Amino acid sequence: MNIVPAQEIKRRGIAAVDEALAQGPVHIVKNNRPQYVVLTEESYRELLEAREEAALARIKASLEDAKAGRVTRHANVEALLQHLDSEPAA
Q1: How do residues 26-53 score in pLDDT, each as one tens digit?
Q2: Same domain for 50 and 82?
Q3: Is 42 exposed, middle or buried (0-12, 13-18, 19+ CB in 10 A)?
Q4: To pair with 59 at 20 to 30 A between CA atoms, which of 16, 31, 32, 39?
């Protein structure tokens, strides 16, 4: 993990982060706890794209389930939530 203490950023400025970014995402620690992660713009865009692709894949799978009749109906929201709580985690 690529870590830079917040105090180092106070002391050296953004140069401390720039140097660390060469090795990947930078985890910034404040008060001995991880507080922030700094990414390059390219890495950030890749992360957003991957998230969008995953969401689209879930939507497509849900549509395929619906077309195949793999659906359940519930009388109300409470019944749906109870059903979801009783399912094993994926």
Answers
A1: 999 999 999 999 999 999 999 999 999 9
A2: yes
A3: exposed
A4: 39
